[in-house]
Design goal:
With 298 residues, the protein is an alpha/beta fold. It contains twelve helices and seven strands. It has helices spanning 7-18, 22-29, 51-65, 85-89, 120-129, 144-151, 167-172, 175-178, 191-206, 225-245, 247-274, 284-297, and strands spanning 39-45, 70-75, 102-107, 134-140, 155-160, 181-184, 217-219. The structure holds guanosine-5'-diphosphate. Guanosine-5'-diphosphate binds at residues 45, 47-53, 185-186, 188-189, 221-223.
Length: 298
């Protein structure tokens, strides 16, 4: 049996980490690794695609069907959504009855540029420490940050709006190539079906790896529980494939490399910033040698 979820403690830990600097992150990283890692499901897509609503539906479905402890984290560096208020609104109170093990939280960074997604590995690790079985991570899917976020989830679902508005944008950002599942959302809207056919064609063209995972294209709607169940089943199939193909282990190794690289980069930044102006007048070799020495000494 797990101990009861301490929501206040978890909430505080997440808020602190969301805005933490390097030192705090390193402190957290020196703790022993968590005993187990939650299954991580990423939902990404443009604002308004229906991610929050879908994340709530999916989390409830998985909680009811799969059981265990399920968390939803919404990361949004640019909007003032805070403390799960908005996300929480998407779920009716009566649906939460008996859902003690569902935890929902939106996290916004104080400024748009402090790179909240930089702290993603630690935020997700906190969820592992609080013994979550599954975490649904919602991120806004435009740009580089998403590619970094991609590394930290097991299954990435790209949520597209039914009118195809940002499909071209998504392709430009390369998201089409990294998503594991495509969901044309708000399938209750008539345009959705036609757009879904277009996406299916685009995906077939962009992804023709015969050996690998073939990303399914689904139509989803918050109003259609069967479509949520179908999405959930696709996530399970992808997860089974990750385990069977050894891809999950490769992902784990890639995550560790990413973290080490990020720690080193931050330390390098510290050393560079610390130098007086005269240091940069030295010959290049001396600058490199001097900086390396300081790096090792810190
Ligand atoms: P996000 O910005 O991607 O997180 O999108 P939201 O979850 O906030 O949803 C944006 C809007 O779309 C809200 O007004 C929702 O009520 C609406 N919405 C969400 N899911 C559906 C759906 O399945 N069908 C329809 N018709 N509207 C939806």
């Amino acid at each position: 049996m797990k101990t009861a979820l301490d929501r206040r403690l978890l909430g505080r830990a997440l808020t602190e980490l969301a805005n933490a600097g390097v030192e705090q992150l390193l402190e957290q990283s020196s703790l022993p690794p968590p005993e187990a890692s939650a299954r991580r499901i990423g939902l990404t897509g443009a604002p308004g695609a229906g991610k929050s609503t879908l994340a709530g539906r999916l989390a409830l479905h998985r909680l009811r069907r799969v059981g265990g402890r399920v968390g939803v984290l919404a990361i949004d560096p640019s909007s003032p959504k805070t403390h799960g208020a908005i996300l929480g609104d998407r779920i009716r109170m009566d649906e939460l009855e008996g859902a003690q093990d569902l935890f929902i939280r939106s996290l916004a960074s104080r400024t748009a540029s402090d790179g909240l997604t930089d702290n993603l590995p630690e935020l997700l690790e906190v969820m592992d420490r609080f013994a979550f079985d599954e975490v649904v991570l919602e991120t806004v899917g435009v740009g580089q940050a998403e590619h970094a976020a991609r590394l930290h989830v097991d299954t990435l679902v790209l949520v597209l709006p039914p009118d195809g508005g940002d499909a071209v944008q998504a392709m430009k950002a390369g998201i089409m190539e990294v998503a594991d599942i495509f969901a044309v959302n708000k399938a209750d809207i008539p345009e959705a079906r036609r757009f879904a056919a277009d996406v299916r064609r685009m995906v077939t063209l962009a992804r023709h790896d015969a050996e690998g995972w073939r990303p399914p294209m689904l139509l989803t709607s918050a109003h259609d529980p069967d479509s949520i169940a179908a999405l959930s089943d696709a996530i399970d199939r992808h997860f089974a494939w990750l385990e069977a193909s050894g891809q999950r282990d490769r992902n784990r190794l890639a995550r560790r490399k990413y973290r080490l690289r990020r720690w080193l980069e931050r330390r390098i930044d510290d050393v560079v910033e610390r130098q007086p102006a005269a240091f940069f007048e030295l010959p290049a070799e001396q600058q490199v040698a001097g900086a390396l020495q300081q790096l090792v000494a810190t």
